[in-house]
Recover the amino acids of this structure.
């Protein structure tokens, strides 16, 4: 039987949910039926590791920032790659690669074009012009796509409300994680010892790249406010990015350098979450936040902003708390409530862990991708 060649395209190989999906599909999909390869930009933390596991073609001009010259160059570079490789399916991830990759595939005459929506590129915090430009681009991208894959139900709702694609184009496939690694962590959690934090102190963790989307200045403000009156709290941010210097400056201004730790990119997320007492996310928009799912697997009841995919997995007062964006005071109150009410914390913790079933696993996600690809 001829294998189906699948070109997976993503902007950059960082430690994010979109990247985990793209790499997992290429790595774990049934190789007796499919021949996957990855096209991506350069300079990601996972570049070296990924190219040792799967076939990767790097496109130097494919960058996250809007850059008309590089964007045009990357369009023609991907066009040439697709023309040479002749894949039966092109599957794009992330906003920039989603637009450029789909246009390149259409230029090649490829019919089976799929795009996974890891949260839309537009949101209510943007200016009117910027938001509507992104909506327009998403509409054009949807017109040349056979399927749109939302990672959360909210993605479908938001897309259809903005006339992006048709209902029959949306084919829901949830993100998947290594459930066993997080639910049944076998090693002794060691982050507090590594950071020289007392085991009895409360450790509050957030995870994500240093991008405006993640709204990390709010998390830093939360660390300042709580630590002023509660000396037994410490805070951790896992991630990195171009905004690091501004965050370091803010931490210095708040005089909380001994209260909050910027860990950079880490691979031991299971250890970090199992070492933590609370998980907080101050994002302004999300697709389906993979770190929230991982935190719930570890028995943490997340305190997160009430946005997009968070609503799909967090049921308020049952397995975590949903808070309006920018409502720092309420987030602080929920953290302290869990800290002071052990029974409530334990109940929400059990509910959070039980909320993550097989449908959140990598195996289930890969199975759904195989079914979709085979149908084409």
């Amino acid at each position: 039987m001829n294998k189906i060649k699948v070109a997976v395209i993503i902007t950059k190989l960082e430690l994010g949910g979109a990247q985990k999906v793209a790499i997992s599909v290429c790595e774990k999909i049934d190789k007796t039926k499919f021949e996957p390869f990855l096209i991506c930009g350069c300079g990601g933390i996972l570049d070296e590791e990924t190219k040792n596991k799967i076939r990767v073609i790097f496109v130097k001009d494919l960058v996250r920032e809007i850059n008309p010259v590089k964007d045009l160059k990357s369009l023609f570079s991907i066009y040439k790659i697709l023309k040479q490789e002749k894949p039966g399916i092109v599957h794009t991830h992330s906003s920039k690669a989603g637009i450029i990759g789909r246009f390149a595939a259409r230029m090649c005459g490829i019919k089976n074009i799929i795009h996974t929506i890891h949260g839309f590129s537009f949101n209510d915090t943007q200016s009117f012009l910027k938001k509507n430009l992104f909506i327009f681009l998403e509409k054009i991208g949807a017109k040349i796509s056979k399927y749109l894959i939302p990672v959360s139900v909210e993605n479908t709702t938001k897309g259809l409300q903005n006339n992006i694609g048709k209902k029959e184009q949306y084919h829901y496939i949830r993100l998947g994680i290594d459930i066993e690694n997080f639910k049944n962590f076998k090693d002794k959690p060691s982050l507090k010892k590594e950071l020289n934090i007392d085991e009895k102190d409360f450790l509050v963790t957030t995870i994500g790249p240093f991008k405006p989307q993640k709204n990390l200045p709010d998390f830093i403000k939360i660390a300042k406010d709580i630590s002023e009156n509660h000396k037994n709290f410490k805070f951790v941010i896992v991630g990195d990015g171009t905004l690091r210097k501004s965050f370091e400056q803010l931490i210095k201004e708040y005089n909380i350098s001994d209260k909050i730790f910027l860990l950079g990119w880490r691979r031991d997320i299971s250890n970090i979450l199992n070492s933590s007492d609370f998980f907080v996310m101050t994002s302004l928009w999300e697709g389906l936040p993979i770190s929230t799912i991982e935190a719930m697997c570890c028995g943490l009841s997340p305190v997160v902003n009430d946005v997009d995919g968070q609503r799909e997995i967090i049921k308020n007062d049952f397995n975590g708390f949903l808070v309006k964006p920018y409502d720092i005071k309420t987030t602080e109150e929920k953290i302290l409530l869990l800290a002071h009410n052990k029974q409530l914390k334990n109940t929400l913790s059990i509910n959070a862990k039980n909320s993550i079933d097989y449908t959140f696993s990598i195996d289930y996600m890969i199975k759904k991708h195989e079914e979709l690809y085979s149908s084409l």
The CA atoms of residues 213 and 284 lie 6 Å apart. The mean pLDDT is 95. Residues 68-85 form the longest helix (18 residues). DSSP finds 16 helices and twelve strands in the chain.
